[in-house]
Amino acid sequence: MIKIQNLKKSFGTNEVLKDINLTIKPQEVVVVIGPSGSGKSTLLRCINLLESITGGHIYIEGKDITDKKNNLNKMREEVGMVFQQFNLFPHKTVIENIMLAPVKVRNVPAETARARGLELLRKVGLEEKAEAYPSSLSGGQKQRVAIARALAMEPKIMLFDEPTSALDPEVVGEVLEVMKQLAKEGMTMVVVTHEMGFAREVGDRVIFMDGGYIVEENEPIPLFENPQQERTQAFLSKVL
Amino acid sequence: MDFRFDIIAEYAPFLLKGTLLTIGLSLAGILIGTVLGLLIGLGKMVNNKLIALPFSLYITFFRGTPLFVQILLIHFGVVPAFLGHTNAVAAAILALSLNAAAYIAEIFRAGIQSIDRGQMEAARSLGMTHGQAMRHVILPQAFKRMIPPLGNEFIVLIKESSLAAVITAPEIMYWGRAMAGQYYKVWEPYLTAALIYLILTISLSFILSRLERRLKTE
């Protein structure tokens, strides 16, 4: 579904991603862990080209998204993204946040988009907040709305960039619960997170990144219980 | 000191006409200046440095030289070059608009750049084009932040339109100076003019603060 080949990314002289090769299968949940500055968020942002890449190729369903000939906006419709800082549109209500892209990008009639939006809100447990503005929501609620907003475009892949890092501890659970549900329904997901419990429970595969490389990847249980690489061991001993 | 209300009464019709012209000059300056300012602000934000350069130079010139000098240049130089003769009202409108455009361009740019990067990223990640993201996500938020500095600029514009008196555009200060010259009086004409300007600027501030409150959703 996603195939990343020899991906390189530099910010000026600072090489953040050095040589990333990764394949993600349909319906797979891949969790990316690693110390801060390891390049995991950058990797995610490269997958829907929020960062222009320095070298290599990224294929989504066989199409090379780094090829200038391909319509990037069309590609991005297929890839949903959830941000650490939610990035809800503060001047729009919850339901308007969700309807905006389907109506403006896909030309879905407003009524249809609203009905579908309410359905998604029900799914994330926030139907009663449809007419509220984002500023009146808690962090956990904002993030659940952000997930619903991304789902409204019916993406084939969902990217999560540290979705719970900006949340108060007591609301982390409600967001992870929505993500678990999504994984159970068969959504292909790439999740950058520090929630090791989530990685272990929901991840089909865990990738450990450090210094711009993928250091180790494996199924969660072997990776957490029997890491092969020294750097993985050192990292896990600090966070577990 | 005897304050002569009778000469104020005598000049009242002229001052009223002058006030109307001041309002006209200011409104024209605001409208033309805003449209031009938006275009110039956008031009300056273009990534290509070569395209952005003329816009940048424009802003540097009109912010870096006195409006008084600009009015004289336009009245005695630019307008005659195009019309063959000069026209005080046209020159005043042109000078005020071009000057305001430079400030408004910077207000516009600052407004857009003050919006968190995440907003553009979220919009683009949903498949919106740059234009759609600007129109539906960035500009509505930037506009709200632009209202206070724009209001400030509009108030400055009303006051600076008084400089048009020196090129004989018959606005408030033109009649004020005429009255001062005829009766050798200082307080009557200039206090009256000050009062009229105050009424105009206070009314505008009032309208703007109402607008600001109405647009507040957060």
Q: What is the helix/strand order of chain A?
A: EEEHEEHEHHHEHEHEEHH
- Average of the residue pLDDT scores of chain A: 93
Give the termini separation of chain B.
Answer: 54 Å
Oligomer: heterodimer
Describe the biggest sheet of chain B? none
The CATH fourth-level homologous superfamily of chain B: MetI-like
Subcellular location (chain A): Cell membrane
GO cellular component, one term (chain A): plasma membrane
Organism (chain A): Mesobacillus campisalis
Keywords (chain A): Amino-acid transport, ATP-binding, Cell membrane, Membrane, Nucleotide-binding, Transport
What would you note in describing this structure?
The complex is a heterodimer of chains A (240) and B (218). The mean pLDDT of chain A is 93. Chain A contains 9 helices and 10 strands. Chain A has a single domain (2-237), classed as P-loop containing nucleotide triphosphate hydrolases (Rossmann fold). Chain A has 240 residues and is of the alpha/beta class. The longest helix of chain A has 16 residues, at 169-184. By secondary structure, chain B is mainly α. Chain B has a single domain (5-217), classed as MetI-like (MetI-like fold, Orthogonal Bundle). The longest helix of chain B has 41 residues, at 5-45. The termini of chain B are far apart. The mean pLDDT of chain B is 93. The A-B interface holds A 48, 50, 73-74, 76-77, 79-81, 83, 85, 87-91, 100-101, 104-106, 133, 135, 146, 149-150, 153 and B 116, 118-119, 121-129, 132, 136-137, 140-141, 144, 217-218. Chain B: Keywords: Amino-acid transport, Cell membrane, Membrane, Transmembrane, Transmembrane helix, Transport. Chain B: InterPro entries: AA_ABC_transptr_permease_3TM, ArtM/GltK/GlnP/TcyL/YhdX-like, MetI-like, MetI-like_sf. Chain B: It is a multi-pass membrane protein. Chain B: This is Amino acid ABC transporter permease. Chain B: It is found in: Cell membrane. Chain A: Belongs to the ABC transporter superfamily.
